[in-house]
Every structure is written in structure tokens, then in C-alpha cells.
Amino acid sequence: MNTVKTGWIGLGKMGIPMSQQLIKAGYPLSVYNRSKDKEEAFKAQGIGVAASPALLLNAADVLFIMVSDDKAINDIFHGDEGLLAAKVSGKIIINMSTVSPAISKEMAAACKAQGNYYLDAPVSGSVKQAEDAMLVIMVGGEAGAFEQAKPILEKMGKLVMLVGGTGAGNAAKLAINTLLGIVAQGLAETVTLAQQNGVEAEALITLISNSALGSPFIKIKGDAIVNNNYQAAFALKHIAKDLRLAKDLGLATPLGETAYQTYQAAEAAFGEEDIIAVIKQVSKG
């Protein structure tokens, strides 16, 4: 068994399979989740459950966070029983959420003031990649803390890379998700054009998948369109949020701006569905 004690905050679609990789690797783990029902499966595994983020940080050497947005991060750090209320030092806090570089810089400064390290380490990949420990993990922060954390992060991903200082991991993730939004919208527009001219979606996806443009993403999302399956693997509301964050970073290029506008328009009606439900938005035009 590994001796580094780990903690995990955020037991959502990604947090559950990612934290399970730490258990499989033999790391002692304790968890905290705002919705208490998500903790029950961990209790059944004999995993410790903390009553607050502060208590979890007290029990952990390395603490991971995987939540939805900047507000959730602010609450986790600044709440009455938040991480900063623990007033401990010597910890490594790794935020794997897709959030803004600005909040990472703010929280990194607060952590440093207490003698702790903060890494932003968002991931590229969805639930299947999390279950298979095949995520791509991009990290921002101090090199020394990264080297300490890298062996643990490698239990969750096929590639773990330090890309720069604090916030750089977040910036890289927002750049990648901008491309994700553009590609999903491009696929949706391509299928729509083909269907409008008598070509079935299934035939088109087969052609694309066997061309130089073929990719796992095209195949998976193309099959989702063919099967009319818009159950969220990565919800459209999340790409809409990520593009807002990218916009705050300065996204103003032609394709980026178009994707931003499209997903903002689609969010109200299709936000809970998968990203490829953007086809419902573009086909309306």
C-alpha cells in the first residue's frame, strides 16, 4: 500500500471513476461531497468520509478537487468549514476542475500564504477515459509540487504534463475545449448539410470515419447522432460554460466566436443533453 494519504472532493460523473483509480493503486483515501448520497458507495467500500473540506484536508497529504465551476471552488476554499479554515501547512491541493485561470491564481496565493501548494490539473477525456485511467492531464503550478504529485496523477491518466505556472493548466484546457466545441459543431453542421441533400447520417459517418478526418470523437458522436442518443457524457451546458471562460481569456477568433454564440443559444433548450445535441440548434437554421 502507498503511504501518501489522499483526499477527494467532488463525486460527480468524473470524480467517482477518477478517485476509484487511487483506491485501486492502494492510496489511503477519504472523501467529501456536498450531496451526501454520493458518499454512500464509498462508505460501503470502507472509505472514510469527512464532514467538511477542512477536516478532509487535515486528514490528507494530497487533496484532489473535481467540481463544476468557479463558484464551487470558491465555496470549497472560503466556506466556514472550507479548506482555508483548516489552517494547516505542508499539503498539496490539486484542482482538477475546469475553471478559470483567475480563480486558480487566487487560490494558489491563498494556499501559499498558509504554506501549502496548489496545482491546477484539469483533464481531457470523458467518463470512459476516467474509468480506464486514460485521461490527459495538463498541470499548472510549481515544478517541485508537480514532481511530488506526478506519480499519483499517473494513476488516472495516460499523459501527465506540466504546461506552465499557475493557471496554465486551466488555460490549456479551455483552449482544448474550444477546439472540442468547434469540432462538435462542425460535425453537426456537416451531418445537417448531408441530410438536407439526401445523404443519411449513418452513411456520412461511415465515410468520414474511413477518411483522413476520422477520429474516435467523430465516431462516438456520429453514432450518437445516428442513434438519436443525446444522453450526456459531456453536457452541452459545460461546453457553454467553458466557452464563456475562454471568452474571458480573450477568445475572439472567427470559429471560436461562432462556437461561443451557438452554444450560448443552445444551452437553455439542450444544456442537459450531450454536447452533440448542438445539432438540434444548428439544424434549426
Would you give an account of this structure?
51% of the residues lie in helices and 13% in strands. With 285 residues, the chain is of the alpha/beta class. The strands form 2 sheets. The protein has a 6-stranded parallel beta sheet with strand order 3-2-1-4-5-6, sandwiched between helices. It has a 3-stranded mixed beta sheet with strand order 7-8-9. The protein starts with 5 loop residues before the first strand and ends with a helix. The relative contact order is 0.10.
H/E element string?
Answer: EHEHEHEHEHEEHEHEHHHHHH
> What radius of gyration results from the CA coordinates?
20 Å
Distance linking N and C termini: 57 Å
Task: Describe the oligomeric state of these chains in a short phrase.
Answer: single chain
Helix content: 40-55%
What fraction strand?
Answer: 5-15%
Main sheet strand line-up: 3-2-1-4-5-6
